Amino acid sequence: MHFDPEFKTYTYGDPTSKRSSLLRLQKNDLLVFYAGLKPYNQKKEEAALYIIGYFTVKEVIDFNLLSTEEREKYCKRCKNNAHIKRMEILGEEHLDDLVIIMGQKNGSKLLDKAIKISEKGSDSIGRNLHVVSKKMRPIFGFEGSIQRSRPREVKEEYVDKLKNLLFVE
Question: 167 with 109: CB under 8 angstroms?
Answer without folding.
Answer: no
